[in-house]
From TrEMBL:
NCBIfam families hit by this protein: PRK01146.2-3
DNA-directed RNA polymerase RBP11-like dimerisation domain sequence ranges: 13-85
The name this protein goes by in its record: DNA-directed RNA polymerase subunit Rpo11
Function of the protein: DNA-dependent RNA polymerase (RNAP) catalyzes the transcription of DNA into RNA using the four ribonucleoside triphosphates as substrates.
Stated family: Belongs to the archaeal Rpo11/eukaryotic RPB11/RPC19 RNA polymerase subunit family.
Superkingdom classification of source: Archaea
Record keyword Transcription present: yes
Gene: rpo11
Single GO BP term: DNA-templated transcription
Keywords: Cytoplasm, DNA-directed RNA polymerase, Nucleotidyltransferase, Transcription, Transferase
Subunit description: Part of the RNA polymerase complex.
UniProt cross-references to InterPro entries, sorted A to Z: RBP11-like, RBP11-like_dimer, Rpo11-like
GO molecular function: DNA-directed RNA polymerase activity; protein dimerization activity
Length: 92
């Protein structure tokens, strides 16, 4: 996945996540909002074939890039857990 940072400040970031759609962006925004240090996490896709733009603001001095990295790690962990359970059920 390619990203392009459009704007970055101490407590906010605006970035484009090339090649992603609503499915991933919804999951990422929801996971970001589960972090109490994240104030705003939203995305926009202006046109059907445009790249999504993610906007994140944080509080308490948390770096918004770190918040995105942590949210992605939690999503990865959840997917790995689901895969393990599916594999266990398919061999049972």
């Amino acid at each position: 996945m390619d990203i392009k940072i459009l704007e970055r400040e101490e407590d906010k970031v605006r970035m484009v996540l090339k090649g992603q759609g609503h499915t991933f962006m919804n999951a990422l925004a929801e996971e970001l909002l589960s972090d109490p240090s994240v104030d705003v996490a939203k995305y926009t896709i202006l046109f059907q074939f445009s790249e999504p733009e993610l906007f994140v603001t944080t509080r308490d001095g948390k770096d918004p890039i770190v918040a995105v990295q942590e949210a992605c790690a939690r999503l990865t962990s959840q997917c790995d857990e689901l895969l393990e359970q599916v594999r266990a059920q398919s061999t049972a």
